[in-house]
Write a structure and sequence with these properties.
Blueprint lengths: L6 H60 L8 H21 L5 H31 L5 H87 L13 H28 L4 E6 L4 E4 L2 H5 L4 H4 L10 H14 L8 E6 L5 E11 L4 E8 L1 H37 L7 H31 L8 E4 H18 L3 E4 L5 E4 L1 H17 L6 E9 L2 E7 L24 H4 L6 H11 L4 E5 L5 E8 L5
Parallel strand pairs: 7-9
Antiparallel strand pairs: 1-2, 1-5, 3-4, 4-5, 6-8, 9-10, 10-12, 11-12
Helix pairs in contact: 1-2, 1-4, 2-3, 3-4, 4-5, 9-10, 10-14, 11-12, 12-14
Length: 599
């Protein structure tokens, strides 16, 4: 398995070589310092030996001078000089203490010579005290010979010291030569360390710079959708990052291929339009939808395909898409190559970077045709069903009133039943018409500032007779709130909710209608004391043809569309409708409306 060499390893290696050279130099400096201290110690010892030789020679000369007869014997001075000589011999013994046997023998002989000189001095003093100034010449000559022998023993120590000085003198010269060599090695090591560090730094720098240049170039090529340079060799982080760039390039290329295939095979026309309104790219769906090949459209103005009556809407919507982040879709007609007209829904996204609009054109001709068919059906129901039902109700009213002849009790009963059925059919048709108008976007609202008190009054007038017939008391809580609504449609909602409450309320119960301001809206609530709604039905009561119990439409009447219509009308006003209920404790239907700015 190949060992991975990272940038950290290279950096450590680059720092490690100068560090090792520096460490070697530090050790050499330490070694030179130790040798320098040793050299200083040797020089100090050499100086001490020189001083000892001078002191011994001075002492010997003084003793020789005092006993040569040139001056009178001074036993006190002689004793003092011999004592100093003994001290100097002891000093020599200290720095020669680790010497060989010959040096030790010379020290022993020097001490022996000093003792002999002291004994001789004692004999001189004793004979001098006895004979006075007339000392026996023979004794004096013998003493002189003994003195010379003793001084020779001491002088032999001087020869040993001089020999040490000669050896010590050669030793510093050797040390100086060694020091010069070490200094040369130190200077050479510094030069080699600096040169090696510079060479390695230049080599690594050039290598990293070259690799980073390739990496930056590949990044730019990746951003420009150009082919990348060959992968960088190695196993460090730069090589890994370059490998990631190549992997990203392959993934992007694969994604682009899939995207091109998706766009090319899309059912909708996908195109880009520049800031001047000309097509810059179109997929192959243009041939199926418009009859134009993509190359036929590129470079042409999109507005040339839009009929004159829709051209202004198209240009305004395209201009709006350049300023709005999420522009809503818009519909126009387009003229195909075969001069036919189709309905198209535009979804536009403006790219500030590309200075182009990316558009998806969806053919909604079938949907528009279905809407027109629905409108025609609604119109047919309005004119062809409501008119006959209205005529039937008028005829039944005339029969019931005896305007076209009298009827017996059975006939009157049958006319009443027929009128109720026609009334239910007409209510169902009206509810269906309202639902279809809302779904088709045909219900137009006339918004105005209206007092809720007025809406409550009109609603109460519409249902008061029905409530009295069910022996249910209706309470309208006074309010001074003003709302911005279509008054007729809100009265329709309130009447529908009150009518439902009356249907499912027991006799002697009460229905309360109130309003209050809440979070910038007016909340209208209709509270009854009826049977309530099960919890599992609360979310579905506002769906079409939904009844709490299956037999309610037969027993209580109604189409099952009232609450669905209420929900749609409230939502058209920007409000919300909801219900709270518990079985056996009644229900509360609430909906919100926007408050008037006049409040």
């Amino acid at each position: 398995m190949e060992r991975r060499v990272t940038l950290l390893h290279k950096g450590l290696f680059l720092a490690l070589v100068p560090f090792l050279f520096t460490l070697t130099i530090v050790f050499l400096l330490g070694y030179l310092e130790i040798r320098s201290e040793q050299q200083a110690s040797l020089e100090y010892r050499f100086q001490a030996e020189t001083n000892a030789v001078n002191s011994l020679l001075a002492d010997i000369y003084s003793i020789e001078l005092m006993t040569s007869g040139v001056q009178k014997l001074n036993f006190t001075e002689l004793s003092k000089n011999l004592g100093q000589l003994s001290q100097h011999v002891d000093e020599v013994e200290k720095f020669l203490g680790d010497s060989d046997g010959e040096d030790e023998k010379a020290i022993v002989e020097a001490k022996l010579g000093i003792r002999e000189a002291l004994n001789l001095l004692d004999e001189y003093e004793e004979r001098f005290m006895k004979d006075g100034k007339h000392m026996d010449p023979v004794f004096r000559e013998q003493g002189r010979a003994r003195q010379v022998a003793a001084l020779r023993k001491i002088f032999a120590l001087v020869s040993v010291i001089k020999r040490h000085q000669e050896e010590g003198g050669r030793r510093p010269q050797y040390e100086r030569r060694l020091e010069a060599q070490e200094q040369n090695i130190l200077i050479g090591g510094l030069i080699v360390s600096i040169v090696t560090s510079l060479l390695m730094a230049v080599l690594v720098s050039r290598t990293l710079t070259r690799r980073l240049s390739v990496l930056v170039d590949n990044a730019l090529r990746l951003a420009s959708n150009l082919p990348l340079k060959p992968p960088i060799t190695g196993s460090d982080e730069i090589a890994e990052l370059d490998q990631m760039f190549h992997a990203m390039a392959e993934a992007l290329a694969d994604s682009n291929r899939k995207e091109r295939d998706l766009i090319s095979n899309a059912v909708d026309v996908i195109c880009s339009i520049d800031s001047n309104g000309r097509f810059t790219a179109v997929n192959r769906a243009s041939q199926r939808m418009l009859g134009y090949e993509p190359d036929d459209l590129i470079g042409t103005y999109y507005v040339d395909l839009v009929p004159t009556e829709d051209a202004l809407v198209a240009m305004d919507s395209m201009a709006n898409a350049t300023t709005v982040l999420n522009a809503p879709p818009f519909d126009t007609k387009l003229r195909t190559r075969h001069k036919s007209i189709i309905d198209v829904r535009w979804s536009v996204h403006w790219s500030k970077l590309e200075q182009s609009s990316f558009c998806v054109l969806h053919n909604i001709s079938e949907r528009k045709a279905a809407q027109r068919t629905r409108q025609e059906v609604v119109a047919m129901i309005t004119h062809d069903l409501r008119a006959p039902l209205t005529t039937i109700r008028h005829v039944l009213e005339m029969l019931s009133s005896g305007a076209i002849g009298s009827l017996d009790e059975r006939g009157l009963h049958m006319c009443g039943a027929a009128d109720q059925s026609a009334s239910r059919m007409l209510a169902l048709i009206n509810d269906l018409l309202d639902i279809e108008k809302i779904k088709a976007g045909m219900m137009q609202l006339t918004i105005a500032d209206v007092s809720l008190a007025t809406i409550f009054e009109q609603s109460a007038n519409s249902v008061s007779a029905f409530a009295e017939g069910q022996n249910v008391r209706l309470e309208m809580v006074p309010t001074n709130l003003m709302v911005s609504v279509d008054a007729d449609r809100i009265v329709q909602v309130v009447v529908n909710l009150i009518s439902n409450a009356v249907k499912f309320s027991p006799p002697q119960s009460k229905i309360t209608v109130r309003a209050e301001a809440r979070d910038g809206d007016a909340e209208i609530s209709i509270v009854d004391q009826g049977r309530g709604i099960p919890q599992d039905m609360l979310d579905s009561v506002f769906e079409r043809f939904q009844q709490v119990e299956k037999g309610d439409s037969l027993r209580k009447g109604g189409t099952g569309l009232g609450l669905a219509i209420c929900k749609e009308i409230v939502q058209l006003h920007g409000g919300l409708i909801k219900v709270r209920s518990q079985v056996g404790q009644g229900s509360t239907f609430s909906f919100t409306l926007p408050l008037s700015a006049r409040i």
